[in-house]
Amino acid sequence: RYAVTGGSSGIGKCIAIECYKQGAFITLVARNEDKLLQAKKEIEKHSINDKQVVLCISVDVSQDYSQVENVIKQAQEKLGPVDMLVNCAGMALSGKFEDLEVSTFERLMSVNYLGSVYPSRAVITTMKERRVGRIVFVSSQAGQLGLFGFTAYSSSKFAIRGLAEALQMEVKPYNVYVTVAYPPDTDTPGFAEENKTKPLETRLISETISVCKPEQVAKQIVKDAIQGNFNSSIGSDGYMLSSLTCGMAPVTSITEGLQQVVTMGLFRTIALFYLGSFDSIVRRCMMQRAKSEVADKTA
Ligand SMILES: NC(=O)C1=CN([C@@H]2O[C@H](COP(=O)(O)OP(=O)(O)OC[C@H]3O[C@@H](n4cnc5c(N)ncnc54)[C@H](OP(=O)(O)O)[C@@H]3O)[C@@H](O)[C@H]2O)C=CC1
Ligand SMILES: CCCCCCCCCCCCCCCC(=O)[C@@H](N)CO
């Protein structure tokens, strides 16, 4: 029995499909009911037995804790206790620090961060009691490094990591495992939406890494979550970033720990070149803007 917030679109929907293919019962959590029903239909096409169910719950995960707690309780009464919760509801907004409304910082923090706290808080007691459980947080590569345009978004995704590290230390003795996923740009409706307002700098820097398919991202996340890996990343850049930014994150295996120890210096060296190229993108864009302003004035 899996619950997926943000399960009606993009990465979340692909995660739900991936789990359904493995025979799971799914609860989808999102706001828009039409999108939920649409996704339910699509997911049900992938059933492997006729007992499987997709339950839809319409709620805003970022608004009111007691509301979130209630709907999760209802879902657990219908389908039984949640074995895996995937916190995938989230959104991105970008812009220069001074151009972003203060309310944007509040909004991203409540959807991306509190929207992961509330559902997790609602399932954790039962998971600990049962000595069974997986909690997945979907952060972002922008939750591993700060980038131009992401002052509001990056901080909300960094926050998830702090939550996940602390929580993992608490729940590990109860056989509950936490996974944090750091996807790169992924081809989803949410990605199309955020691209409408993305600054040029942010776009150019992000294009260092190619865009992924949501199916591929979902597959990796589900695999890592089932294995109980703390870290879930995609591709060779994802691997390098995770290794480089491992810090005091929990370690899942001796192999992982050894790889981090051995590769850290090399990856930092590579990172210095990336950082240099990002700075030069920012400087070039600034000069371009200055030039076109002068041209506008003289025209
Ligand atoms: N696509 C990308 O490039 C990347 C995405 N990510 C992260 O992955 C996650 C999914 O992204 P993606 O698939 O692109 O997003 P989409 O916009 O395609 O889907 C977002 C899902 O979350 C739901 N949702 C949004 N806000 C809320 C809310 N307040 N309460 C409940 N449900 C909500 C949406 O449904 P509804 O609107 O009906 O509520 C929808 O089901 C996000 O956390 C995003 O930050 C990370 C790295 C890269
Ligand atoms: C050894 C060091 C390797 C360094 C690699 C550096 C990679 C930088 C590119 C980061 C792209 C950020 C994607 C954010 C995705 C996201 O969350 C979107 N939804 C928001 O746009």
From TrEMBL:
Catalytic activity reads: sphinganine + NADP(+) = 3-oxosphinganine + NADPH + H(+)
* Function noted in UniProt: Catalyzes the reduction of 3'-oxosphinganine (3-ketodihydrosphingosine/KDS) to sphinganine (dihydrosphingosine/DHS), the second step of de novo sphingolipid biosynthesis.
The reply to whether Oxidoreductase figures as a keyword in the UniProt entry is: yes
Q: What does the UniProt entry say about where the protein is found?
A: Endoplasmic reticulum
What Pfam families does the database record attribute to this sequence?
adh_short (PF00106)
What is this protein's name? Answer: 3-ketodihydrosphingosine reductase
Species, as recorded: Suricata suricatta
Record keywords: Signal included?
yes
- Mind telling me which SUPFAM superfamilies this protein's record contains? NAD(P)-binding Rossmann-fold domains (SSF51735)
| An annotated GO BP | sphingolipid biosynthetic process
Pathway linked to the protein: Sphingolipid metabolism; Lipid metabolism; sphingolipid metabolism
